[in-house]
């Protein structure tokens, strides 16, 4: 008897299956990126010193993950929970890296990093409070969405420095292949996820990341073929 159990089943379309598959793939490839700094932090722990390493990339990555995590929550953007999951994992990793960095840094650097960490949490708190207090639901999604796009595009643009270095040195030493490949695969996965979800705040920045990933891989194959590979090891500093 229809409706006897009082349960309404939601139809699961092929688009839903494809979007979930793309989102899960993006989460897996992102995890590879999140664990890539582990060799650096093993070295820091062994030497009990941060040497010449910079903690700024991890501070910025934490802020980026927090903003994108907030965008992916149901209270801001319902239906894209896989954006929230990947960035929650990313935020945990970045916080762990920053904590290790602070513990092993010299006093001046320790104070600076601790101040930056508190500033990240304060800024994120302001964003959350402002988006909840000042905007209704549609406007809230636009506000946080534009912030996440700006943050993601600036993050994806950072490899331009490495691309410039590869062209100048004619060496792929500073462009680890598997790291570049993971970045490309993560970007294209979330680009597809955003397209399936019809969410420009996801597919636009990841489209930019996909293009930059193609450029990186093309340069890698060109320079490694023409000039040879100096090293496959990732640049630690």
TrEMBL record:
Keywords, comma-separated and alphabetical: Membrane, Repeat, Sugar transport, Transmembrane, Transmembrane helix, Transport
Domain of life, per lineage: Eukaryota
Cellular component, GO annotation: endomembrane system; plasma membrane
Gene Ontology BP terms: protein homooligomerization
Signal peptide: none
Stored InterPro entries: SWEET, SWEET_rpt
Protein's name in the database: Bidirectional sugar transporter SWEET
Organism: Escallonia rubra
């Amino acid at each position: 008897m229809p409706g006897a159990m009082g349960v309404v089943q939601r139809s699961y379309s092929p688009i839903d299956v494809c979007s979930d598959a793309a989102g899960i793939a993006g989460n897996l490839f992102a995890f590879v990126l999140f664990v890539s700094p582990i060799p650096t932090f093993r070295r820091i722990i062994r030497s009990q010193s941060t040497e010449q390493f910079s903690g700024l990339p991890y501070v910025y990555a934490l802020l980026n993950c927090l903003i994108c995590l907030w965008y992916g929550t149901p209270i801001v953007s319902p239906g894209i929970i896989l954006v929230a999951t990947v960035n929650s994992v990313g935020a945990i990793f970045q916080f762990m890296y920053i904590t290790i960095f602070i513990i092993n840094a010299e006093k001046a650097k320790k104070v600076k990093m601790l101040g930056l960490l508190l500033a990240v949490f304060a800024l994120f708190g302001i964003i959350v409070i402002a988006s909840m207090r000042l905007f209704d639901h549609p406007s809230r999604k636009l506000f946080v969405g534009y912030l996440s796009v700006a943050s993601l595009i600036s993050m994806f643009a950072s490899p331009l420095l490495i691309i410039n270095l590869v062209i100048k040195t004619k060496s792929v030493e500073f462009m680890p292949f598997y790291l570049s490949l993971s970045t490309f695969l993560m970007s294209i996965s979330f680009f597809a996820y955003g397209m399936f979800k019809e969410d420009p705040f996801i597919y636009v920045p990841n489209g930019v990341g996909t293009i930059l990933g193609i450029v990186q891989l093309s340069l890698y194959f060109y320079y490694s073929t023409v000039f040879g590979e100096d090293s496959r090891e990732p640049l630690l500093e």
